[in-house]
Amino acid sequence: MKNTLIFWKESIQYEGVSKTPFPDAKGAQIHERDIADAAVVAISEAGHEPVRS
């Protein structure tokens, strides 16, 4: 997400819109903090243990 903000910074600041250099690209804008929060839950709460075969 931080990399995306670099792309969007000027267009948001000066034009009030977000523009991307790759408009046809598919992807989700997920902030690394959200990923870290999910990882904490996965490693610290019961029910998220790896399946062992």
SS content category: mainly alpha
State the helical fraction: 40-55%
Q: Give the helices and strands as they follow along the chain.
A: HH
- Spans where pLDDT lies below 50 across 5 or more residues: none
Which outline best applies? elongated
How many strands in all? 0
The total of helices stands at 2
List strands and helices in order, with pairings:
Layout: H1 2-15, H2 32-44
Keywords:
about 55 residues, mainly alpha, 2 helices, about 0% strand
Provide structural commentary.
Helices cover 51% and strands 0% of the residues. The chain has 53 residues and is mostly helical.
In short:
By secondary structure, the chain is mainly α.
